[in-house]
Design brief:
The complex is a heterodimer of chains A (942) and B (183). The relative contact order of chain A is 0.05. Helices cover 71% and strands 0% of the residues of chain A. Chain A has 942 residues and is mostly helical. Chain A has a domain of 143 residues: Tetratricopeptide repeat domain (Serine Threonine Protein Phosphatase 5, Tetratricopeptide repeat), CATH 1.25.40. Chain B has 183 residues and is α+β, with helices and mostly antiparallel strands. Chain B has two domains: 104 residues, Gcn5-related N-acetyltransferase (GNAT) (Aminopeptidase); 77 residues, no CATH class. Helices cover 23% and strands 28% of the residues of chain B. Chain B is built from five helices and eight strands, in the order βααβββαβαβαββ. Chain B has an eight-stranded mixed beta sheet, with helices on both faces. In chain B, helix 3 links the parallel strand 4 and strand 5. The longest helix of chain B is centred in the middle third of the chain and has 15 residues. The termini of chain B are far apart. The relative contact order of chain B is 0.14. Classes of the chains: A mainly alpha (942), B alpha+beta (183).
């Protein structure tokens, strides 16, 4: 075929692929293949269309054929890259690209493709070797620097042993100095060079380069280089020189806080750098320098006035350090803080600026208390209001344990509220999209009410807090801080639909899903109505997880771009970013939550169990990164109290690594018992590569051993109900495991069945499976003796009764509805897990062959008890739902919140807030009750 | 006091306090990665000493011959850190790099015509209106804000390579161009 004919013939295929009409692409390919049965490009494009249509098995067969032919033309390779990426077969992709480059070493494009394939796969060492080879072949500096960064990436990989790090950095160093052109030709190369010198502690060599004209010029425009320079000077111990340089920069007008820190570090260098006891001489020396610095800062502060707060704050930092080093007592510090407050009290960041210097002694000192008390506070202007807010926050921060009584906190909450309402007049002309200047007082009031709740344990203060915040939102529609507080409080109150509404109003999107979805998806099973067919929460889980797919598809392209553009400052960061999203803790917490909900509304089928088993196993091998943003939640609680974030976590714990690990252990074990996939079968059926394993040595242990590990730091993240569930699941698993292992069909039977299914579906045999060989080795187990049937462990039966009695006790105490729902949904979860664990013994033939009649009887017994408890709980929840939202209860609650019905907040507003909460509660109570009844119907038979 | 440092890809995990504000758009990750892969030195962050982000600027360098210039794509400061000259610091950083490193002739930016506050802020930084771009922010139809809401001012400030101030003009507000004619 000539090139022209070829192009013409393939055009329709490409067009169809571009338009997403994969089916017509396949038809066109088939036509081509009829004419040219060995055309490899046609096969590759067909494979691509098949992948896009999710016809994985068919695509795989073509894939193997193409790869075996070792394609060398660019169109085929490019199509295959997409195919292999789509199938998750990165190892094959690397092999293909490397093979192509090996057979055509003069082809620069192939070299680059082989390099990038390795980078995408995290094979830093191979990437380094390829780029070195490319540099020799094509004599381009760029490739030399690629090999330098590859060596650095390998050195920094967590799986690289510590001893290798230095060796690799030395290699990087050797490569950099071998470059025919100096690194300072580009800021990015220079930055990388300096980092190597920093790592190898070659400070003098680094300094010579940094002090050169061109080095200085680079540092003046590149913040990244400037930061490395600063680090190197500090490591060299050149605090004094760095301090002087920073002084010059400040005198020239630079107000970067880092420069001020350098001046301060230089000031305290005499006492900080001495290893032994600080001598009086060095103290004296320090005092002298201190005076000089104080004058320098005073000069700058005077020059800047209120235009810039760097110098006055640096002075406070100076006095703070002097106080901490014992050069003088706290009074000098307090004076400088007072000055700062006078000057910048009308800026909203003033509280945060000063908070860093308020240790317990300073905060509780009479001197500081008097300064705050003597501030002139008024509502004359927005500036005055801001000052008042800062003083209130500072005063609150300094409150002591003895100030924490229900009465005093309630009084404070009411006072903040009345000040908030008064402050509203200053912002009454602002457009609706603006925030009210007095918003923070509403936040303070809500904080105080939340504190009252933690002190008294009664729910009413939460209603007051919610009322204040809801009112605040009517004046500042866009206040995301109020919304986030409301989300937390509504969840505690058991009003999840209101929490979800506020979450949606936050308009969380893209990467924010990773950092913020914890607000509503943590333990979402508690509120999920999936069992009744309402898929709100499972959908929310899937939507929030979109970002991980986007990351997997897009980020690696930008890593490649960063290489092409030689952005060495960015490459390690892009790689880390990709990794942090790919292995995000929240991603898998949401995945776990989704699995828990999925089992409440989908039929328990081995397909689901097998699939989830494999996915959860992958998760179990990951090294997670916690990207959840908790800092975003405001905190105006006193220093002696837990932060708002901690106070408002539903059930008092957050779902971190320990929670995830615990639930993975519960589910992996149950799924493993229920599934016929053992390791050999799984390896045969797996399509893509396995994800990168965490370097944690624990992941090397055999799975059953890992599943049995219990750690106190992991259980610490569980609620007491979740702990009980875990113990129950362990006991149940221990009891049934021998029977599962004995009755599970041998691998060759499972594989034969899988092969049959594949052949039915695709007309092709299952790849790489030699059934005959398997059946010879796989039949040994049946010679073993059947394990004895042991009596049911007491815990397995008692669990359901325990849960029920806890459930019954709750309404009498002052608990919240969320707690009640938690017990109900954990019980429901156990009920489903019981079904998963006993699925295998539902097949009559299995029971008959293995003589498990006795075991099945015992299981029946457990199920019956669980059945009746599920039914009772569902009934009780329905009763509670009916009792919610009656006029009487509404009035009683609104009465209890009378203290917030002041000023513009009228009684009706309070009543309305109460009504909304109760409506939402009623709905979720009813929904969960119906869900439990439905699950009871599904699983109670048999 | 704030730390001025380069914008890092990892900042996407911590910019919520800035981006939850309605006037700041959260783009797809490819948007940020694209800027960082091309103009990392024109993207920087102001950070409080406790590590909280206060604001950031994203910029690029573009244009040909005498139109070669630095451009401010996004400039934003978290609500609690406003009125602290943070915007001025970040803008002057971008000007410095556009001038010394990229050797641009000017720096420019687009702003909604009805955003009087921003326009006067930029005027305070030395920018002036170069032209008015019709329907830059899309056609919104007849609304209360009228033309001023959908039109943008292209504001410019000359750098040292343009000592004759050829990149600016006095009557910029009267020069109206269509959105299609600008990059």
């Amino acid at each position: 075929m000539s090139a022209v004919t070829l192009e013409r013939q393939f055009r329709p295929v490409y067009e169809s692929l571009d338009n997403g009409s994969n089916k017509s692409a396949i038809l066109s390919c088939n036509k081509l293949l009829k004419k040219y049965p060995t055309n490899i490009l046609a096969k590759a494009l067909k494979a691509l269309a098949l992948v896009r249509l999710q016809k994985v098995e068919e695509s795989l067969a073509l894939c193997d054929e193409i790869l075996a032919a070792k394609p060398l033309d660019e169109p085929t390779m490019s199509a295959m890259m997409h195919v292999l990426k789509g199938l998750g077969r990165n190892a094959d992709l690397v092999a293909m690209c490397e093979e192509a480059y090996k057979s055509q070493p003069q082809n620069e494009e192939y070299g680059a493709q082989a390099f990038f394939a390795n980078i995408r796969n995290g094979n830093w060492k191979s990437a380094q070797q390829i780029s070195s080879k490319m540099h020799k072949q094509f004599q381009e500096d760029r490739y030399l620097y690629w090999s330098v960064i590859s060596a650095i990436l390998q050195a920094n990989d967590p799986s690289t042993p510590a001893g290798m790090r230095t060796v690799l950095y030395k290699l990087a160093h050797r490569l950099v100095v071998s470059s025919p052109t100096p690194s300072y030709l580009s800021a990015d190369r220079f930055h990388m060079h300096m980092n190597i010198l920093k790592e190898l502690e070659l400070y003098d060599e680094a300094n010579a380069l940094l002090e050169s004209e061109v080095g200085k010029s680079i540092c003046s425009t590149s913040l990244a280089c400037s930061q490395t320079r600063r680090d190197i000077w500090r490591k060299r111990g050149s605090y004094k020189e760095e301090g002087e340089r920073a002084r010059d920069r400040i005198s020239e007008g630079d107000r970067n806080w880092l420069e001020f820190l350098s001046v301060l570090d230089a000031t305290f260098a005499p006492i900080v750098s001495s290893q032994d006891e600080i001598s009086e001489q060095s103290r004296q020396e320090c005092r002298e320098v201190l005076n000089g610095t104080r004058e320098f800062l005073a000069d700058i502060a005077q020059k800047d006035g209120i235009k810039n707060r760097a110098a006055p704050l640096a002075r406070t930092e100076l006095e703070y350090r002097a106080y901490k080093h014992g050069l003088h007592d706290s009074s000098v510090l307090v004076e400088s803080m007072a000055d700062y407050l006078t000057q910048f009290g009308d800026k909203s960041c003033c509280f945060e600026d000063l908070k860093a210097y308020l240790d317990a002694e300073v905060a509780s000192s009479e001197q500081w208390g008097a300064i705050l008390a003597n501030q002139h506070l008024s509502f004359e202007s927005i500036s005055h209001l801001q000052r008042l807010i800062n003083v209130r926050k500072l005063q609150r921060y300094g409150l002591s344990k003895t100030d924490m009584t229900v009465e005093a906190e309630t009084a404070r909450a009411v006072k903040y509220l009345s000040e908030y309402l008064e402050g509203l007049s200053l912002g009454k002309d602002l457009p609706v999209t603006e925030l009210q200047p007095s918003d923070d007082l509403a936040l303070l009031s809500a904080h105080a009410f939340v504190n009252v709740w933690t002190l008294s344990g009664s729910e009413e203060p939460l209603y007051s807090a919610v009322t204040v915040l809801e009112f605040g939102l009517t004046r500042s529609r866009m206040s995301f801080l109020m919304r986030m507080m409301l989300i937390r409080l509504y969840r505690i109150l058991g009003a999840p639909s209101l929490a979800l509404d506020h979450y949606r109003a936050l308009n969380v999107k893209r990467v924010q899903n990773d950092t913020l979805s914890h607000l509503v998806l943590t333990r979402a099973l508690t509120f999920s109505l999936a069992a009744t067919g309402d898929l709100t929460y499972p959908t929310e889980c899937l939507e929030s997880s979109q970002i991980y797919l986007v990351n997997a598809q897009e980020t690696s392209d930008f890593i490649v771009r960063a290489f092409t553009a030689e952005r060495y400052t960015q490459i390690p960061e892009f790689i880390e970013f990709e990794d942090r999203l790919e292995n995000s803790l929240q991603r898998d917490v949401v995945k776990m939550e989704h699995v828990r909900m999925r089992l409440t509304h989908e039929q328990l089928h081995t397909d689901i169990i097998d699939m989830e088993l494999i996915e959860l196993k992958f998760i179990f091998d990951r090294l997670h990164h916690d990207n959840r943003d908790f800092v975003i939640l405001p905190n105006y609680q006193p220093a002696c109290q837990p932060m708002f974030n901690e106070q408002s976590l539903m059930f008092g714990t957050s779902c971190g690594q320990g929670w995830l690990w615990s639930f993975l252990k519960i589910y992996l074990r149950a799924f493993q018992h229920a599934s016929d996939l053992d390791e050999t079968v799984e390896a045969k059926l797996l399509i893509g590569d396995r994800p990168k394993m965490s370097p944690d040595p624990e992941t090397k242990l055999p799975l059953p051993e890992r599943l049995a590990i219990r750690k106190s730091e992991e259980t610490a993240e569980l609620t007491s109900e979740e702990c009980q569930l875990m113990e129950w699941a362990t006991a149940l698993g221990d009891w049934l495991e021998p029977h599962h292992n004995y009755t599970r069909p041998p691998p060759h039977v499972v594989l034969a069945e899988a092969a049959k299914q594949t052949e039915l579906k695709t007309g092709l045999p299952l790849r790489g499976v030699d059934l005959k060989a398997l059946s010879v080795n796989g039949n040994s187990k049946k010679d073993e003796e059947a394990p004895p049937i042991k009596p049911v462990p007491e815990l397995v039966v008692k669990f359901f009764e325990d849960m029920y009695s806890q459930f019954k006790r709750l309404p009498e105490s002052k608990c919240s509805i969320s707690q009640l729902l938690h017990i109900a949904t954990i019980t429901q979860e156990a009920y489903i897990l019981l079904a998963v664990e006993t699925l295998r013994f539902k097949t009559p033939s299995v029971v008959k062959i293995h003589k498990l009649g006795n075991l099945v009887c015992m299981i029946k017994d457990i199920r019956q008890k669980a059945n009746s408890i599920m039914k009772d709980m569902s009934f009780e929840l329905l009763k509670l739902a009916e009792a919610e939202n009656t006029g009487d209860r509404r009035s009683t609650l609104a009465e209890a919140c009378a203290c917030v019905a002041v000023g513009q907040i009228d009684h009706d507003f309070v009543l309305n807030v109460v009504r909304n909460v109760m409506d939402s509660r009623k709905k979720v109570l009813e929904g969960v009750a119906k869900g439990m009844a439905k699950l009871h119907n599904t699983h109670s038979q048999s | 006091m704030s730390v001025l440092r380069a914008f890092s890809a990892m900042d996407m995990f911590k910019f919520n306090n800035i981006n939850l504000d309605i006037w700041t758009e959260t783009y797809g990750i490819n948007f940020y990665l694209d800027y960082l892969a091309r103009w990392p030195d024109l993207c920087c962050v102001q950070e409080a000493p406790n590590g909280r982000m206060m604001g950031y600027i994203l910029g690029k360098a573009e244009g040909s011959s005498t139109e070669w210039h630095g451009h401010i794509t996004a400039l934003t400061v978290a609500p609690e850190y406003r009125r602290l000259s943070l915007a001025r610091n970040m803008v002057s950083r971008l000007e410095l790099v556009s001038d010394q490193h990229y050797k641009g002739f000017f720096v420019d930016l687009y702003v909604r015509c009805n955003n009087a506050l921003a326009v006067s802020m930029y005027e305070g930084f030395g920018y002036s209106v170069y032209r008015r771009v019709r329907e830059y922010y899309g056609s919104l139809g007849v609304r209360r804000g009228g033309r001023d809401e959908e039109d943008a001012f292209d504001m410019r400030k000359p750098l040292s390579r343009d000592p004759q101030r050829r990149s600016v003009r006095a009557n910029g507000r009267e020069i109206v161009v269509s959105a299609g004619s600008v990059s």
